Amino acid sequence: MTLKTLVADGLAEAGVHLLEGAGPVTVQPKITAAELLTVIPEYHALVVRSRTKVTAEVLAAGVNLKVVGRAGVGVDNIDLAAAEARGVTVVNSPQAATTSVAELTLALMLALARQVPAADAALKQGRWEKSALMGSELAGKTLGIIGLGRIGSEVVRRARVFEMNVLAYDPRKSVERIHERGAEPASLDELLARSDYLSLHLPHNAETHKLLDASRLAQMKRGARLLCLARGGLIDEDALRAALDAGHLAGAGLDVFAAEPPPPGSLAAHPKVIATPHIGAQTQEAQMRAGLAIAAEVLAVLQGREPRWKVSAGEE
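User: That's the sequence. What structure does it adopt?
Assistant: Structure tokens below.
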């Protein structure tokens, strides 16, 4: 039996070659939702990133589908319940982008602290604004981490190199585990009140939707800065805009948004926001790791072996 794989959002060439060990691979990085519905019946495996939505309708049309692979960690673009109901295995590659996202978190933190984008823009426009660009050090500041998984833990390691104090809130981690990962356990209320920088590293689901709403943003320390490189939807963007406008928060570093790409005039354009277009995993190293890792997971399922990173409904 010839097993066919569709790669819908592009994949590192090495990953594509690995997938070819099971059969023909079609790469269509710009496939539309309508086109996907038309062609999916002929495929046994589907590999996506964050752009392609694997809806219940897509899964129903994929009568031959055995596996959906997400090249990355977040699976909120895949209907896990529908996949499970149809016997379609969902796998991801949760470790591929850990280092890249952690490093970008520190990059945005430093950019906020030292006003790097504003300094660069002024100089390129012929303005020497040295006295106006007073920054601050990370050393001695308190970083609050919400979500102490792989990425959150790597951010902790790097923040401690910068001599930051680190608090962490993660109801799924024991006090002992949080200490082991180099952070001080704190309640959510305590973390919001004490953090000079607050970084979110958790999935977006019904439980975490708009976790940082107006009331929680108001609990944050005046002059604090907020970072989110996890998923759009964790923050009430209207409330964050209001907190920035009022001067309650000094700035935000955002790589993800509720709508991607964000529309003109959105929070991404706010002068106190340093915004990047969901590039946390956009490094050569992360892309290579993601391609090889998800190809190995998809092959395992197609060849009747147990995958390492199977995702079940309720885990997104």
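The CA atoms of residues 210 and 234 lie 4 Å apart.
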